[in-house]
Amino acid sequence: MSKLTLGSYPHMLGFEQLERLLERSAKSGNEGYPPYNIEQTSDFSYRITLAVAGFAEDDLTITIEDRQLVIRGRQSEDSDGRVFLHRGIAARQFQRMFVLADGVEVGDAIMENGLLHVDLTRSRPETVVQTINIRKSE
């Protein structure tokens, strides 16, 4: 059985980039840490919430790289001579990636009670009607 791609549909023209984005997203290495929620806050806005307990604002970076929202966390290892008898709170680094559609803009990032909220807005699509003139061949 052959693999169906968006290019196999003759009426889907120019969607090769979307297919590459989907493949890249699937291979992005997102594991289960840290857990996150994605909620739709209105018709044109979203909020991504990551559980980042133990991370300070300075331990987190948020960047946009080639239409991907990338959130990274790295805690500094300053034990200050502490001796842990049990260490069950994860202090590992992470990277979460989210592919952004055209027209999606990243807004505020807010840290609250161990949760990092990243707000996104999507521009309202404009309806464009274009008439193409037909000319006679010569």
Walkthrough of the structure:
There is one protein chain. The chain is mainly beta and 138 residues long. The chain has a domain of 84 residues: Sandwich (Immunoglobulin-like), CATH 2.60.40.790. Helix content is 8%, strand content 36%. It has one helix and seven strands; from the N terminus they run αβββββββ. Strands 1-2-7-6 form a four-stranded antiparallel sheet, with no helix packed on it. The chain has a three-stranded antiparallel sheet with strand order 3-4-5. A hairpin with a 2-residue loop joins β6 and β7. The protein starts with 15 loop residues before the first helix and ends in a 16-residue tail after the last strand.
Helix and strand topology:
Elements (H helix, E strand, L loop, with lengths): L15 H11 L9 E7 L2 E7 L8 E6 L2 E6 L20 E6 L4 E9 L2 E8 L16
Antiparallel strand pairs: 1-2, 2-7, 3-4, 4-5, 6-7
Radius of gyration, taken over Cα atoms and rounded to an integer in Å: 22 Å
Low-confidence runs of at least 5 consecutive residues: none
What series of H and E elements makes up the topology? Answer: HEEEEEEE
Estimated helix fraction: under 10%
Inertia-based shape: elongated
Oligomer: single chain
CATH class categorisation of the domain at 31-77 and 89-125: Mainly Beta
Cα(first) to Cα(last) distance is: 46 Å
Mean of all residue-level pLDDT scores: 84
Q: What order do the strands of the largest sheet run in, or round the barrel if closed? A: 1-2-7-6
By CATH, the architecture of the domain at 31-77 and 89-125 is named Sandwich
